[in-house]
């Protein structure tokens, strides 16, 4: 209790679903744990398959086949899930009926057709006077949810296992109601001619005898099952034609004693090998004619009943009390078909009208206390005796286990009890088991084993559930597939887009380079063309000029020949110029040349504009490329957003699978339960193993969760940008961390480090609160405590503590530090890093939940210190006193909140163990508190510890003497 500390968080639920545990005041949140665990696995309803039993060790009787071939013949061939249907039907028509609402007596053989089911009810005894005082500070170890037919067994203050029964009877259940749901259906089927058994199983003092054997002569309302059963039987038979006889026996140390004749103390069991009937011919059989005679019989038997007085309860017994009611009924005419197998009935035929006798047997067993011998204090038994005392009960347990497991061998011959019940327990019989439990947490172990016994006596009926689970699984799978498809489609689109961009860019580049190349080529061609033309025309001009030159020389010579002696020179000069100017040919040539040149110039100009044009288009293309780039960027952005969306979707998927679990849970229980309890139980069931095979089942489902979502993925979401996702993620981690089986995986995956980091990196108080809670849960193991210390966890927690406002945050931080305080090795370091100061700082918030954690931390610390001092490892004053904790401790030693007070009282006792602390304690006024504790503390262990401490300390003794 002291060192265990669990916090659970509502993951997807608003806070109104939180509830408060009576003892601690700490909300036990209805929490979603991420488990897809099979609810049917959790509920563990195991059944004695009576059909199987009938054909196996409990014997197939003629009656069996007749029963089956008779009214129940149809039902025998029903598909398995019909039993679920009929069960639901019964629940509706006769709520609270254990045995299927007495369907055997009605013409509706629907339920009678499913005989193979031991109905198990659990009944809680109210606190007795002693428990009122001794357990005043503690919550009951069980919590009942009768409307859900569930029982929660507390593992510690924070944690419980949930079990389902056919009926859950609270401490307020009336005897009448108990009779009606447990025994009445069995009695009705006995009146119909079937054998029936009602058994009460439980620890001594939990109310077996009260439930089964109470006579109720003082208080009518207190009448137990035996008395009420006889009343119903008497009312249901006609004493003219029918007969009732009873035997009342006790089975002790494998000997059957007659409670109606104490001298008859070794009755043997006789089995008819043909019919399988079991009888006790040696036992006294008393004919019952009226109720009064029956009460007399019971009283007589009670007087004789051997009661091994035990420490627990003086009325309790180590023996089994067995009441056997034999019923013989005459059945007329057509009804006789049902029991025509009964050969003895033929002897009763006396007239022409055939009549048969229908025999039936009701066995009511008040079993011996289920506790192990040593605990009951039945001292003085030899080992052999002890073995023999327990033999019948353990043989019964073994038979139930074997039947529940469908084992081919049922060890029915191992004990007298199982031999005796052979024909009453299974086969044609209808059987009800009421298991009784007490509320006290001190007997949690016995209560747990009683509950497991009851659970094994029920059978898994999970056809419907399995189908539903399949539906939800497929929903989750469909979502997964959709998500995968989306991701793939996105990838595909991305690829197509990128390819298109690439293609366009390449195309543009190619066009550009083509244009450039063409331009250069064209330019070069033109240039060389005009150069060539130009050169050619020059050459032509030169040729012409040379020709003209030659011609004019000839002409001159001719003239000289004609005009000798005349002044020719000036003329000659004139004639030389004139021909050029006047030569029309030359002129034409020149003009041609000029036109040519103009044409070339025009050509160049055209090319130039072409070039400009091509430059412009180039610019255009590059702006196109810029645009495309931008589109590409946009797309990348889009992709990022999509990826975020996928992240969110994944977290929603996570949520959906949890909600699916929750819905399935609700559907399983008929859809009528509230969300809170559904989730609450889901959490517990998924978190806690309830038997060996469910443990593996749960582990599997957690493994499945990790596999499906991936712990790393969840942890990576702790750093998500979206604050909602972050909060979700930390809650998921916190819930996973609440389960011991996950803690190692979380720490391995770096979860602890991430959680510690969140304390600095996040400003959000919710995140602080949840992270601190998760750290508190992880801080339950020594290895993790060391890891937290090594990563500076105390400082981080202290910082969080100093800035937090919300009491729940402070509670989580204080809880985490309190867990660290319980580690012997970390004392110095914890104190050195301000752990104690941080705890004391948190008392500024006066919330009792916070104070209780602070007190727990101090008590843990004091306990470790006290251990260290006792081992001689530590000397000198307590570090708690050094750090100034004493005034607060003394002030709060009598705090009105029990949870605070209890821790402080322990802390004081630990501190007072050592003389080194005595002076400070005396000066601080702690002695008065110690005296008060030694007198008034409701817990005996603390009270006597305080007393011992006071009387053994010289300083305290001296101070008390001084104070008179
Ligand atoms: P068991 O037979 O299992 O040893 P008992 O039937 O003798 O236990 O019960 C022990 C004590 O508790 C008796 O004093 C009984 O009257 C009381 N008791 C048991 N169940 C109830 C109940 N449901 N309501 C009131 N008192 C009960
Ligand atoms: Mg008893």
UniProtKB/TrEMBL annotation:
Q: Where is the protein found, in the record's own terms?
A: Cytoplasm, Cytoskeleton
Keywords assigned: ATP-binding, Coiled coil, Cytoplasm, Cytoskeleton, Microtubule, Motor protein, Nucleotide-binding, Repeat, Signal
Mostly located where? cytoplasm
Q: Name one GO molecular function term.
A: microtubule binding
Give one Pfam hit by family name. Arm
In this chain, ATP is annotated as bound at 202-209
Specify the Kinesin motor domain's residue ranges: 117-460
Q: Name one GO biological process term.
A: spindle elongation
**Annotated region Disordered: where?**
69-113
* Superkingdom, taxonomy of origin: Eukaryota
ARM repeat start and end residues = 709-751, 750-793
Ranges in a coiled coil: 487-540, 625-659
Q: Which residues form the signal peptide?
A: 1-18
Cited InterPro entries: ARM-like, ARM-type_fold, Armadillo, KIF11-like, Kinesin_motor_CS, Kinesin_motor_dom, Kinesin_motor_dom_sf, P-loop_NTPase
GO cellular component terms, A-Z: mitotic spindle; spindle microtubule
UniProt KW Nucleotide-binding keyword: yes
**What family classification does the UniProt entry report for this protein?**
Belongs to the TRAFAC class myosin-kinesin ATPase superfamily. Kinesin family. Ungrouped subfamily.
Q: Summarize the subunit comment.
A: Interacts (via C-terminus) with NEK5.
Q: What is this protein called?
A: Kinesin-like protein
